[in-house]
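Progress note, sequence design subtask.
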């Protein structure tokens, strides 16, 4: 199997940078922290793995009564991340990308922990949803295996969740994430050693019941006559492949990428593992350190998933979430087009999907978004210094700012916050979704205030500043289409720093339209903008011809 991203993924740059780039990606999982260091060749583009690190930290070993991450576990995680940083530095990595999944996502003090990581290590960790985790796993698998445009099932069994994905060479048709994982089930359901029959029977039944909904969703997207191959990734499946290969072949292959075993093989091992003590499982040739404690629960998850999916064999893949984080970074930096063009527009498509779901008037929202981005671009470097990522968040908020009307006209800005915050916006991490939701929340009525829970939920002072400044721009953009008829064709900004005056020149779409309601709305809403940026806003109607766009 290839160890590089397929070489037919072409760079979008007209003159590709020839120098290789070294990137490190960290996956903060429920059971272990993993880091992969890769060398990217931008001319292909492709990446090869030049280093791997792993530490079993058990973030999923949370306080039973509160569900919070334990102090000693957080200390271990930070020590591990510090070591990872040193390794990455030695390898000359230009940047480190880190994601956290279910254990941190579900812990009440998870965000506080990420604050601490950023404060102590200077490392910003993306907290991602279950569906976003599934999407990036898909990208990782796609970078390590050739699908030949055929549908494939992918299963990734982690410590706290299991992702089941249906995809082909371009798009994931179905992305699911279920709260069953090897560490979670071991902690919650297994108390005997070896496991008692009654506990084992309940473990099987509970696992099957939890997986049924995800499997039904996946199967519903099968097309007639399709029989997708099952691909398995991550610790549990790699361990089962290793111990199977060692017993069957006498040794473990140099790579497990592409190694196969059957459901019958798996069931045989499950029957053997359930009769063993933890010490006996630890003594199995090929069993990684500490994996013996959770391997039975992980094997049961895989067994029940294969039975429900109706597949009788599995092929392993050595790439998963952390490699998917690399691919996602390459996509966001314009290094991949062609084969993954569909994925490169995932943010835009997921926003438009939510807009359709909540019956947003897209013609109107597009105008508001255009005004918001025009204000952003014309004030960049003068009133603010935000970049391309913040610009994308403003666009998403502008498109979705009115989605709360789907619930009620009254207080619809608050409903917009709730709908966006609880939507599956693929391509965005949890912090970015929180920012988009807050931007929409503050497009009208009260400006951001520290007493508001949603505003306090933002991870850092910088994130709150993004919301305060960009929501002020969004308010003006909404005012500029007050009648929702496209009365204003274009705006032009002029900033006089010595007078702290901001002139907004308005060009009507129709000659003779004084845009009175839009100008009134601007005057009514400009107070928040003026207070935020410390300027005086003066709006003037231009009656001359509309100037050419710069």
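Output:
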């Amino acid at each position: 199997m290839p160890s590089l991203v397929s070489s037919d993924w072409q760079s979008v740059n007209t003159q590709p940078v020839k120098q290789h780039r070294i990137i490190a990606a960290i996956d903060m999982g429920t059971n272990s922290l993993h880091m992969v260091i890769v060398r990217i060749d931008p001319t292909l583009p492709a990446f090869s793995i030049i280093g791997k690190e792993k530490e079993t930290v058990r973030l999923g070993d949370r306080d039973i009564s509160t569900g919070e991450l334990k102090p000693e576990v957080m200390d271990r995680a930070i020590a591990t991340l510090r070591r990872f940083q040193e390794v990455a530095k030695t390898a000359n990595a230009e940047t480190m990308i880190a994601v956290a999944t279910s254990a941190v996502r579900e812990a009440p003090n998870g965000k506080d922990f990420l604050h601490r990581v950023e404060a102590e290590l200077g490392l910003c960790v993306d907290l991602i949803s279950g569906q976003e985790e599934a999407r990036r796993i898909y990208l990782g698998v796609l970078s390590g295996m050739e699908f030949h445009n055929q549908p494939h099932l992918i299963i990734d069994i982690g410590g706290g969740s299991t992702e089941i994905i249906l995809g082909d060479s371009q798009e994931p048709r179905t992305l699911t994430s279920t709260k069953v994982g090897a560490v979670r089930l071991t902690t919650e359901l297994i108390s005997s050693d070896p496991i008692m029959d009654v506990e084992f029977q309940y473990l099987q039944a509970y696992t099957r019941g939890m997986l049924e909904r995800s499997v039904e969703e996946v199967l519903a997207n099968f097309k007639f006559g399709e029989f997708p191959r099952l691909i398995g990734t991550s610790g549990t499946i790699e361990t089962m492949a290793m111990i199977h290969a060692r017993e069957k072949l006498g040794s473990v292959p140099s790579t497990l990428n592409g190694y196969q075993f059957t459901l019958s093989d798996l069931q045989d091992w499950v029957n053997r593992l359930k009769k063993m003590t933890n010490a006996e499982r630890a003594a199995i040739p090929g069993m990684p350190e500490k994996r013996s404690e959770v391997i039975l629960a992980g094997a049961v998850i895989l067994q029940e998933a294969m039975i429900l999916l109706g597949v009788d064999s599995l092929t392993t893949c050595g790439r998963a979430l952390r490699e998917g984080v690399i691919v996602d970074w390459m996509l966001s930096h314009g290094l991949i087009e062609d084969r993954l063009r569909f994925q490169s527009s995932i943010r835009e498509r997921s926003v438009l999907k939510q807009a359709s779901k909540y019956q947003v008037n897209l013609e109107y929202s597009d105008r508001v978004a255009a005004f918001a981005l025009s204000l952003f671009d014309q004030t960049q470097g003068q009133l603010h210094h935000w970049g391309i990522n913040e610009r994308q968040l403003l666009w998403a908020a502008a498109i979705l700012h009115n989605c709360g009307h789907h619930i009620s006209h009254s207080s619809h800005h608050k409903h917009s916050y709730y709908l966006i915050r609880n939507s599956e916006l693929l391509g965005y991490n949890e912090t970015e979704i929180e920012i988009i939701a807050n931007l929409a929340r503050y497009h009208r009525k009260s400006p951001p205030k520290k007493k508001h829970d949603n505003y306090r939920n933002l991870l850092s002072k910088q994130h709150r500043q993004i919301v305060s400044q960009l929501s002020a721009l969004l308010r003006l953009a909404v005012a500029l289409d007050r009648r929702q008829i496209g009365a204003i064709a274009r705006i032009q900004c002029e900033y006089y720093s010595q007078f702290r005056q901001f002139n907004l020149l308005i060009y009507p779409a129709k000659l003779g339209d004084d845009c009175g309601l839009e100008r009134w709305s601007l005057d009514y809403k400009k107070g928040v903008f003026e207070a935020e940026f410390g300027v005086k806003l003066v709006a003037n109607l231009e009656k001359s011809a509309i100037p050419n766009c710069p």
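The CA atoms of residues 279 and 412 lie 58 Å apart. Work on this subtask will continue into the next period as scheduled.
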